[in-house]
Amino acid sequence: MHASSLNRLAFSATAHCLTGCAIGEILGLVIGTALGWSNWPTVALAIALAFLFGYSFTMVPLLRGGIVLVTAIGLALAADTLSIAVMEIVDNAIILAVPGAMEAGLTSLLFWGSLALALAVAFVAAFPVNRYLIARGRGHAVVHAHHH
Fold first, then answer.
1. Which of 19, 29, 115, 140 has the fewest other C-beta atoms within 10 Å?
2. DSSP H or E segment with residue 41
3. Average pLDDT along the chain
4. Cβ-count burial of 28 within 10 angstroms (0-12 exposed, 13-18 middle, 19+ buried)?
């Protein structure tokens, strides 16, 4: 695969992953913060929802394309697990490292700015992971083969 097309596919896969992760991450942090939970239960919820939404964003088009559920689950796990894990480690580490970000509240620029920064850095961290996997016929390359 040519480097520019590999980079485009890796960028697309990373953006796809970030979308699912961000939805889950934001929902988890908003729910945990709104309920006044401490950091670790909030982070655990955010991670669980990030994986749920990340996998769902891969599985739904596969299922709509006629792939059976068990196969779609396997493809989503193979395509997304490492990328989501990298994103979740990076973005949660940043959110937890920014003093006061988790306690800032939902109306705070510190909360939302830290979250935006964390997700942007997570994208940068996950891009080479996705590129590496795709270059070796793994990750989203496996799912991509089912779309064409």
1. 19
2. helix 39-64
3. 90
4. buried
